From TrEMBL, chain A:
Keywords from the named record: Cell membrane, Membrane, Transmembrane, Transmembrane helix, Transport
Localisation per UniProt entry: Cell membrane
ABC transmembrane type-1 domain boundaries: 94-325
UniProt-listed CDD domains: TM_PBP2
Protein name: ABC transporter permease
The species this protein was found in: Kribbella speibonae
Amino acid sequence: MNLVLRRVAAMLPALIGVVVCIFVLTRVLPGDPARTLAGDQADPSVVAKIRTDMGLDQPLHLQLVRYFTDLLHGNLGFAWHTGHSVASDFASRLPATVELALVALLIALLAGIPLGVISATRRDRPVDHAGRVFSLLGASMPLFWLGLMVIVVFYNKLGWAPAPLGRVAEGINPPTGITGLYLVDSLLTGDFVAFRSALSHIIWPALCLATGSTAIIARMTRSAMLEVIGQDYVRTAVSKGLKPSVVTLKHALRNAAPVIVTISGLQFGQLMGGAVITETVFTWPGIGSYVVQSVLATDYAPVQAFTLVAAVVYLAANLVVDLVNARLDPRIADA
Amino acid sequence: MKRTVLALAAAAALAVSGCAANANSNSNSGAEDAGDTLVAAYSEGGKTLDPAEANDVTSDTFVVAAYDQLVTYARTEDGGKPKAKTDQIVPMLAESWKASANNTSYTFKLRADAKFQDGAPVTADAVVKSFDHIKASSSASFLYKMAGIAKVTKVDEQNVKIDLTAPNHLFLQILPMYSFSIIDMDKVAQNGGPKWLATNTAGSGPYKITKWDPSTEAAMARNDSYWGDKPKLRQVNVKFIAEASNRVQLLKKGEVGLALEVPPKDVQSLKAADGVTIDSRAGNKILFFAMNNQIKPFDDPRIRQAVSYAIPYDKLLNDVMKGQASPMKSSVASSTPGFSDAGYTYSHDLDKARALLAQAGLPQGFSFDFTLGSGFDDWNDDAVLIQAELAKIGVKMNIKKMARPQFLEALETKKVQSYITRWTSFVNDPGYHLGLLLTSQGSSNYANFSDPVVDKAWQQASTEPDVAKRNKLYDAAQQEINTKAPWAYLYEYNIVVAHRAGLDGYTSYPDGIVRFFQLSVTK
């Protein structure tokens, strides 16, 4: 418990720093949101009026103070380009992004860890080489290109994937909302029509999103495993006559786990960022596509809120990593 | 640990038993006939539903679906395909109108049967309050000014009188615009004021906006108690798909019935696709290469003319736009009533360009800065091709790229040396077009063109009630502009709408807005 408090306290300055940085950056960069909102045929008096309405004519430090005051009251601001409060926009979109990132993380873990373990135990054999090539490709492929290719091949040519138009097919009602995660909600309500549709819709963007993380998790697992496999106690375990699978999974993998957990936690943060691109390509109704729209419309508040949420997710992922590692290896908790 | 698992299992069991009727337990859900439903693919989700604040194609589309205006544009046929006739104004919510003898006052008589979507009648009060809303708005207030409206008064329940500051032929041209929609302002007041209109509608139009989420999709349902012709499509879903290639693929597969903003390079492949119809017709959106008339050497008309002779017009039309554009021969689009290409002599002729440079005392050429705004692929290609041609006559064009918001801000300083930009005249009239772009006072005259001949002709035309006399004045202004060449004209964009075969009734309007109530699907 002490550890949790200590970590949360350490997070606060980082969060404040992030908020101030992004606040100043969005405003210092050229590009006038009032002009964007007014359209390019409006005359300057109209633009000036909008600027006043938005409070953009105030000095920067006063705007910042007002922003922090709002933030402390739980007010994330107003999204000019949607006409809703940022909080309500986020509430309706965040579950879609979280679901996508979670499914992608699940895929990355289920594929990456075994791939890494196999590569390590069959070092320099064909499987290892294949894994290396996959990792290289997976880590270096641009996400938007991969997404477009998946759509061209699996939707357009082969017809395996559904139309990239949201979370369930046209004409199917979204499951009754409980958690906002369609896969979970549809199972909870026994709605298998929605479950099947939601699964077929999420699997393609999730696969794309997971590719880079799978590659990195596989590589890190491999190197962590190799380090452990060379240790004396592993040799001892082998010489005791334990089955190879027991040695690999119980002795080696268990001791390589902290590294794998750490890298997976960081990957979750990466996945939230990658969602911005994947969501735009697949028309996924999450906060990623929303923040892209906001950037294009020079709409400050949603961009700031997204940065804040991303920072919180990143820090929270770090915290979870620390807690899990402390459990795996009590020595870490004292460090 | 065990306890948590048990609790979770219990919760799950409860949830399953408690929700026997789930969201899809009706077996016929989603089985509605597709014949009266249309799915459309747009690139952007719009910014507002408030008629007086809307100024992008998507927002405007929802406004014309949910609202009516006092009057509207007539329709005509062009090669068997319906198109708008913007210089002929026909009744909508107003069944008739009368102008005073000196053309400074108009009285509109409202239809007796017109109702807002929730049943309240469309009254003279609603019209007066709607005009107040437009006047107080950020976006449309300048149109209100441009229409020259002095006062809007209720004569009786069914009649409204609009007084103008002076005779103004733009007035009747501006009234059919989406900005001048008639709003149920009493309903707006009940809901806390005009801000409510940004995400809600209170109109009398043919469709109700049932969902609007700018980053994903919107939905409209037919207003079954519409006072006018009943729309054929019961339901229109609009998907916002930023990626152009996705819009093209979805249309090819029949997943969507209509797609906008199809890139020119995809038009050919779509034409060859089964069951897809491309409707590509001249609009009034123009693209021009502006040279700042107050920054050397572009202060010399001969230099600007030389640039106009160096533009590789055919390459731009055929290689960049793949034929989805047509030559531009005046500062005003050729489909705008009153267009004239008098004085336009330019073609791709490098010898003439060199001669003009020599006359202007710059036979060796010169170097200048060109600012390229982001967001449109064709601008990028155009700039590179023009750069290569100019290099042949010794002119060095330094391309500086800028993100769109920065670009718009830079233009406003009126200090950008040269740039290309597009323009759609929402009011399809040279008075609007030239007034904003090429008169000394024009708020979008970012190239600082200032010419007494043009200013005077425009001023006289703005209060001239006779069409023939007015067009003569516009003719003189255009001839002067064509000769002085403040811009090199690049092309006029076609309005390209790609749709599935069997979609009928699509009418091309210069504003590029699809009126869904005119469409029907036959299969």
